[in-house]
Amino acid sequence: MKKISLLIIMLLMQSCSSTQNEKNRVQVFPLNNYSQNLNTYINSESNDYDTPLIKKWVQLEKANIYKERLFGNQSPWSKEFVINSINKKTPDDIFSIENFLFQKFRENCDTKNPKSFSLNFKPYTCSWFDNKILSNMNLTKYNKYIEFDFNNRAIAINNISARTLPTNSPLFYSYRQAGEGYPFDMLQVTSIWTGTPLYIVGKSQDKKWSLVLTNSGFVTWVPSNKIALASEQFISQYLESVNENGLRVIIQPDTSIINNSGKIVQIGYTGSVFPGQHIERKNKIFYPIALKNGFAKLQLGRIHSDKIAIFPLESTPKNFVKVINPLLGRPYGWGGLYYFNDCSQELKAIFSAFGVWLPRNSAAQYQEGITLDLSALSTKERLNSLSKLGRKFVTLVYIQGHIMLYIGNYNNEPWVHNNIWGFKPADNSYRSIIGQSSLIPLLSYYPENPELISIADEKLRPKFIITYLDELFENKS
């Protein structure tokens, strides 16, 4: 009897221990120890508060490069750009990439060690992958040279959650692994904002999904009902509006776009760009809608004048504060989930306001400027170098898998703005969650929890690279 009682107690203890371990995989970092108002760290009385951080001629040249990505030679509306992007050699061709991604997530289905899980914690079956996804992807269509078709030029008529596979069903790796499970939907690619030019490479078997090319040069699946065809007439009207009235850029998240009847018709996000409606009225724009025949039409709209700017916004510290402060505290959004930002989408949004085009992922972003590789330095040397060499608001800080914006020094420490999920200890056993757009100091360790790895750690962070965005740079990759 005593043995049975002892066994029961041991089992209960194991159960409690298991439950406790589950709980300990997620902790909350005490971010309230650090002010989350950019005005704390930036002196509005300083002499350079209204001084551009990027020379005017440099910024205008960068803005021209940005326009090329929107509607010029580097745009999905450009025949040359499309052909070069969608007809690459194996294994970089569309068929190989799409097949690889499908097989990657299908791996280990119907086994005791499944890889991919649904919302209900249950693994996806092989049948789901084969019958619901693969049969709908129409992959054989891409196993050949793909001709350019002017009739496949398109534009986003709504904000879009772009997907790796043609499904809205989320896919998670096991929540039992620290840093996996919700909110890391592995099929979430990015947010595509209303008014973004696209090119339709193909459609799913059921036509509900379109495989589109973006101006970052990658293809992704989007719901077909969230895009419209961009006819030659539409593109001509779009370009005419830009040439006559310039561009406008939204500088605050969750911004209402209102039509002539006073109805809210769209929600805009920081970095969304639209043709201007009137040269002297910055809050008047054209936004795209879809006609019944599937083609796009430009519609008149207006936005509250505090939430929009003439593109590009002057690159002063005052304006960086104006753009960044409204983003602070917004939840972390893996791959732009729910139209929140992750680290690279946050920076892309911010610099869109200033006419500086950035790619979508962090590894590509840090290569879009003059780089200084500090990876070989010690943790202390990395931090000291950033403090001395960083240029506030125009210096990116890249570690493998994450990217940040240097905002300057405060109390003799370098500070960054970033959108980050959290910190982890050396043994990767749990996450200390920040989970939002935030301002943090870069320290060798955090006194709140010395177990957590510093972002600048020389041993566990193999890369530490800073990038200057205030100079002209030609990326030859």
TrEMBL record:
> Which Gene Ontology biological process is one annotated for this entry?
proteolysis
Checking Pfam families in the record gives: NLPC_P60 (PF00877), SH3_6 (PF12913)
Is Iron-sulfur given among the entry's keywords?
no
Query: Which residues are listed as membrane-spanning?
Result: none
- Residue intervals of the NlpC/P60 domain: 329-409
Cited InterPro entries: NLP_P60_dom, P60_peptidase_YkfC, Papain-like_cys_pep_sf, SH3b1_dom
Q: Which UniProt keywords apply?
A: Hydrolase, Protease, Thiol protease
Q: Does the keyword Cell cycle apply?
A: no
At the top level, the lineage of the source is Bacteria
PROSITE patterns in the cross-refs: PROKAR_LIPOPROTEIN (PS51257)
Q: Which residues form the SH3b1 domain?
A: 170-222
Molecular function (GO) terms listed?
Answer: cysteine-type peptidase activity
- Similarity comment: family membership: Belongs to the peptidase C40 family.
What is the protein name given in its UniProt record?
Uncharacterized protein
